[in-house]
Design brief:
Shape: globular
Number of helices: 22
Order of helices and strands: HHHHEEEEHHHHHHHHHHHHHHHHHH
Largest sheet: 2 strands, antiparallel
C-alpha cells in the first residue's frame, strides 16, 4: 500500500529503512510462513467484509493485535527506546578514535551495524575505533520510550488524511466547491462524457503535483456536487472509482509524484527530466484508454440529438454558482486558501522549514486556519471525519510493519530477485506483473526499496549515466509498484479514500466488488505498461 510522498528526504529515509529491515537478524522460514498466512487472512476477511458484518477498522485492528502479540512472543520486534532528532548521516570512519558521549552515556548505533563484507552485528552496538568501515547511520538524538506500535504507524499519512479532510469540509461551507463544480459543469454543457474527461484529467494533474489522497478528496468532492446538480447520481460510483484509479496513473508522471518513484529513480540515477520524458507518453495513453473504458463500462455517453443537448443546456444555464455563498469575504478567503494550499503541498519538498515539517503539517495547518472561521462549532467538523478510515489505516500500518520484521516482504523480494535472472523480456514482464500483484496487498515502499537493492547488486543491470539508459528492470519496478494500487481497495491510500467516499454517498461497494469493477482497468493499465516498457522505453 502506497504511503504518500513526503519530499525527497522522506524517500531517502525509506531507503535507509528498507536497508535496515533487509539486514535485520535472520528469521526462521516457518515464522515467515505463519505471518504470510496472517496477511492472507487479513485480505480474505476484508474481501468478505459485508458477510462478516464488521467495519474495516475492526478487521484491521483485530489482525494488528494478533500480529503484535505473536511477533512480540517470537522476539521479532525491537523494544529499545526510540531515537528522535538524530544528527545527519555520518560515516563510521569519521568517528574512529572518538568517544561519543551524551548525558554521560556512550552513544549507541540505533540500526544494525553492517560491515563492508555484509555481516551484521545486530542492533545497538557502540562504535569502536578499530572496526572496519560500516554503513552510514544516524547518531545522537533524544531517546524516548514509545510503544512499538506507535512508530509502526505512518503518522504523516494520518495527518494528511485528517488535515485534508477537515480543510475540504470547512472550505466547502464557503460555497467555493459548489462554485467550482458548477463552473466545470457549465463548461461541459451538461454532457456526462465531457464531465468525466474533465474530472479525469484534473485527477491526473492533481496527483502529479499533489499527493494522491489530497487529489482524491478534492476531485471527489467536486464530482459529487456536479453529478447531484445534473441529477446523475447513478453515475457517481463510476466517476469516483475511475478517479481513484487515475490517481495512481498520475502518480507515475514525475520523479517525485510517489515514494516508489523516488526510491527506484534515485537508485537508478534517473533524472527528473528523463523520468518525465519516459513516463509522460504512458500516462497520456493510459489516461485516455482508462477514460474510454470507463465510458463504456459505466455507460457514460455523450448527449445524443439536438433535443437532449438543448435540454442539458437549459438545465445547466439554470444553475447559479452563487448558490451557497453566504459571505463573499469568506468565499474569497476560502479561494485564496485553496490556491495557497495546493501551491504549498506541491512545493513542500523544496520550501525551507516546511520541507522538514512535511505535508502532514501543511494539511493540518491549513485545516486549523480554516477552522478559525468556525471556531464556535468545530465539533460538527470533527464528527464528520471518517474515523473508520483512520482506524483502518492505523491497523493496516501495524500489520505491514510486523510483516516486514517477519521477513514476509523479504521472501517476496527473493522470489522476484530470482525472476530477474530470466531472459530479459520474460524477466521484465514478470517483475512488472508480480510487483503489481504484491503492491496490491502490501506496502510498496519497502518492496521498492528491497527490489532497488537487488537491482543495484546485479552487475548486468544498467543505471542511468550520460551514455547509458537505465535498465528496463528499473522501469518495471516503478510501473508495477504504482499500478498495483489499482487492483484492490487497499492497494493505495487514494483508492481506499475513493471507496470511502463511495460508501459515504450510500453506494454499495464491497472489497470483492471493487476488485471486480477495477480488474479490467488494472489489467489494461498493466498490459499497456508491459508493452510500453518492452518496446518503447529506450
Amino acid at each position: 500500500m502506497e504511503r504518500l510522498v513526503q519530499g525527497l528526504g522522506y524517500g531517502m529515509n525509506e531507503i535507509q529503512y528498507g536497508t535496515m529491515i533487509a539486514n535485520a537478524a535472520p528469521v526462521s522460514p516457518w515464522v515467515t510462513v505463519v505471518f504470510g498466512i496472517i496477511l492472507l487472512g487479513l485480505i480474505a476477511c476484508l474481501a468478505f467484509e459485508e458477510q462478516l458484518h464488521a467495519k474495516k477498522s475492526v478487521i484491521a485492528g483485530g489482525f494488528a493485535i494478533v500480529s503484535l502479540f505473536l511477533a512480540a512472543s517470537m522476539g521479532l520486534l525491537p523494544f529499545q527506546k526510540v531515537v528522535i532528532g538524530s544528527d545527519p548521516l555520518v560515516d563510521h570512519e569519521s568517528l574512529a578514535g572518538e568517544r561519543l558521549e551524551r548525558d554521560g552515556e556512550l552513544t549507541h548505533v540505533e540500526i544494525p551495524a553492517v560491515h563492508a563484507d555484509g555481516e551484521s552485528e545486530g542492533t545497538g552496538g557502540a562504535v569502536a575505533a578499530d572496526e572496519e568501515p560500516l554503513v552510514p547511520v544516524h547518531v545522537d538524538g533524544h531517546r524516548i520510550g514509545m510503544p512499538v506500535y506507535i512508530p509502526a504507524i505512518d503518522w504523516g499519512v494520518i495527518a494528511i488524511i485528517v488535515g485534508s479532510s477537515l480543510f475540504v469540509d470547512v472550505t466547502s461551507k464557503s460555497g467555493l466547491f459548489t462554485w467550482i463544480a458548477i463552473k466545470v459543469t457549465k463548461f461541459s454543457g451538461g454532457d456526462p462524457l465531457a464531465l468525466l474527461i474533465l474530472y479525469g484529467l484534473m485527477t491526473v494533474v492533481f496527483s502529479a503535483v499533489l499527493n494522491n489522497v489530497t487529489a482524491m478528496i478534492i476531485v471527489g468532492s467536486l464530482t459529487a456536487v456536479s453529478l447531484e446538480k445534473l441529477g446523475r447520481n447513478d453515475k457517481l460510483l463510476g466517476f469516483l472509482l475511475v478517479e481513484g484509479l487515475l490517481t495512481n496513473v498520475g502518480g507515475l508522471l514525475t520523479l517525485i509524484s510517489s515514494v516508489p518513484n523516488i526510491i527506484v529513480g534515485t537508485a537508478a540515477n534517473i533524472s527528473f527530466i528523463q523520468f518525465f520524458y519516459v513516463s509522460a507518453p504512458y500516462v497520456t495513453v493510459a489516461t485516455l484508454l482508462t477514460l474510454a473504458l470507463a465510458a463504456w463500462r459505466f455507460q457514460i455517453h455523450r448527449l445524443r440529438g439536438a433535443d437532449e443537448k438543448e435540454t442539458a443546456r437549459q438545465l445547466v444555464s439554470g444553475f447559479d454558482e452563487k448558490d451557497g455563498i453566504e459571505s463573499w469575504g469568506v468565499f474569497w478567503f476560502g479561494a485564496a486558501m485553496l490556491v495557497l494550499f495546493i501551491a504549498t503541498i506541491a512545493t513542500t519538498s523544496v520550501l525551507p522549514v516546511i520541507s522538514d515539517l512535511e505535508m502532514g503539517f501543511v494539511a493540518l495547518a491549513f485545516a486549523g486556519a480554516m477552522l478559525l472561521l468556525h471556531r464556535h462549532d468545530v465539533e460538527k467538523f470533527y464528527r464528520a471525519l471518517d474515523w473508520d478510515l483512520l482506524g483502518f489505516f492505523m491497523g493496516l500500518f501495524v500489520v505491514i510493519h510486523v510483516m516486514e520484521h517477519a521477513r514476509v516482504l523479504d521472501a517476496i523480494g527473493s522470489v522476484l530477485g530470482a525472476v530477474m535472472g530470466w531472459e530479459e523480456s520474460r524477466g521484465t514482464s514478470a517483475v512488472l506483473v508480480s510487483s503489481s500483484v504484491v503492491s496490491s496487498v502490501t506496502d510498496n515502499i519497502p518492496l521498492s526499496a528491497m527490489l532497488a537493492k537487488i537491482l543495484g547488486g546485479m552487475p548486468d543491470v544498467a543505471v542511468q549515466t550520460a551514455d547509458t539508459q537505465a535498465s528496463r528492470y528499473w522501469w518495471a519496478v516503478i510501473f508495477g509498484a504504482n499500478l498495483g494500487g489499482n487492483i484492490t481497495p487497499i492497494g493505495s491510500a487514494s483508492t481506499l479514500v475513493a471507496a470511502t467516499i463511495i460508501h459515504r454517498h450510500k453506494l454499495p461497494l464491497s472489497f470483492a466488488s471493487f476488485v471486480k469493477l477495477a480488474a479490467p482497468f488494472a489489467v489494461l493499465q498493466i498490459v499497456i505498461a508491459v508493452l510500453y516498457v518492452l518496446f518503447v522505453v529506450p
